[in-house]
Each structure stands twice: as structure tokens, then as C-alpha cells.
């Protein structure tokens, strides 16, 4: 019993000495110690340390940019990625974090791998994500380029459309003066040039829709010119007896790209030659 009492007293004095040393180390840093049932002396932890805990400042290098990130010392790399997402605009799945030259997994804790205050971490963008963004950027540039090319064609078609309207006013105005056929041919050729330009535009998405709209517009103008040319060559069609008017329409063929083009009629023309089976024998 006496021996046990001495041991207990000795243990208490050791605890008191260490505690006093903790107080004397730094005035602003007070360390509380506690004795575990097994006899191990450990630093006492408050119940609130797990939720708040000390924070550290990490220097994150991202290319030519540097970020000072403040996070709890016991955070994981996954939590650090979520903080960096707000700073860099990169989603956590698009980030790769390297510490001391090795990539770290999301579930690894900062303090467990040696990350301390003012430690340096390297942020890299995931190559697959970077490639996807590059493809998306190139695609957007192609769409923008297609928009610009379609817009240029639309401007030219607007000018030609005004000339078609002027010809239509002249032909349908009931004047006895005919319009020279060359004017119809020139306008038709100019419209076909614009149609060929539309055929060469590599468009996708909304730009492809806009291209189809212009294609149908050009085709409609060419059909109008064909009708005006036929009516201009037959002035009697301007009278009330319009049933004798000749209607001429261009036949169009639609390709896989959706652009119409001129094409010869697919139905064979009937031959005026009559074939018989009357054979004549020669010597």
C-alpha cells in the first residue's frame, strides 16, 4: 500500500512538472497535458478542436499564377480542390495537386503527408479536361467562322434580291418594252455563285440552319427569275388569259450536306427515233 501511494504521488509530480514546462515555454502557447489510463502522457485536446482546428496558409502554384489558400490544417486534398475551384474556375475533377513532386489523392489529409503552414503545392489541369476544352474552343471558333461566312453571303444575296424585285416590277408592270434576256442570265449566274459559296461552308449547329435558310432563299430567287424570263418572252401572258403562260422552274438536287445545286433531270428524254425489227439480209 505504501509503495502504491508513492508511485501515485510520483506520477502526479511528473505531470505537474511537465505542465509547468508547458506554461513556461511560450506565454501565448499554453499546453495542457492529460494522463491516459495506460500511463501515457499526451496533450489534452478540447472538444471544439475537431470542428475548428488550426488553419494554415498554403502557397498554390498554377502555371504563372500563385494563390495563397487558407484551409484547416487537417483538411483533405479533395477539400483543398473545392476551395481552389472558386479561385481558379477549374472543377475539382479537372485538378491535379502535386506535393513534393507526387500527385495526391482526394482522400489524403494535408497534415498526414507533411503539408504545413507556407508549404507549396502545385496545381495542374487534367490533360483530358484540357483537351476537351481545346476541342470545344476550336468548335466554337469554327461555328463563329461559319456564321461570318454565311453573313457575307447573306449580304450579297440581299443586293441581288433587290435587283430581282426591280426586274419583277418591270416585267409585271404591263409595259410593252421587253427586258433583255441577258439580265436574267447574269442575275442567275451571280446567284449560283453565292450558292456555290454556301456549299463550301463547313457549318454545324445553328450555323448549319442559317446556311440552309440562305440556300432555300437563293433557290427561290432563281425560280423567280426563271418565271420572269418565261413571262418576259411571252408578253401575252400579261393579259387576263394567263392560262397560256409558260412556267419554267429549275430542278434542284439536295446533297447530304443539305445544299441545293443544279442538276440535269434524272428521267431520260424520249427519243424521236422509232425502232423497228424489220431486218434486211445482205449477200
Description:
- By secondary structure, the chain is an alpha+beta fold.
- Helices cover 46% and strands 14% of the residues.
- A 5-stranded mixed beta sheet has the order 4-3-7-5-6.
- Helix 3 (127-171) runs antiparallel to helix 4 and helix 4 packs antiparallel against helix 5 (206-233).
- The model is unreliable at 1-27, 45-51, 239-246 and 261-273 (pLDDT under 50).
Chain-wise SSE layout:
Layout: H1 2-25, E1 33-35, E2 41-43, E3 55-62, E4 65-72, H2 77-88, E5 95-99, E6 102-103, E7 120-125, H3 127-171, H4 181-200, H5 206-233, E8 252-254, E9 260-262
Helix pairs in contact: 3-4, 3-5, 4-5
Biased composition (Low complexity): 1-13
Region (Disordered): 1-20
Domain Ubiquitin-like: 56-124
- First and last CA, distance: 152 Å
Helix/strand class: alpha+beta
Unreliable parts: 1-27, 45-51, 239-246, 261-273
Number of H- or I-type helical stretches: 5
Instruction: Estimate the mean pLDDT confidence.
Output: 75
Oligomeric state, counting identical vs distinct chains:
single chain
Main pleated-sheet profile: 5 strands, mixed
GO molecular function, one term: protein-folding chaperone binding
Region (Disordered): 1-20
GO cellular component, one term: cytoplasm
Pfam family, one: ubiquitin
At a glance:
Helix content is 46%, strand content 14%.
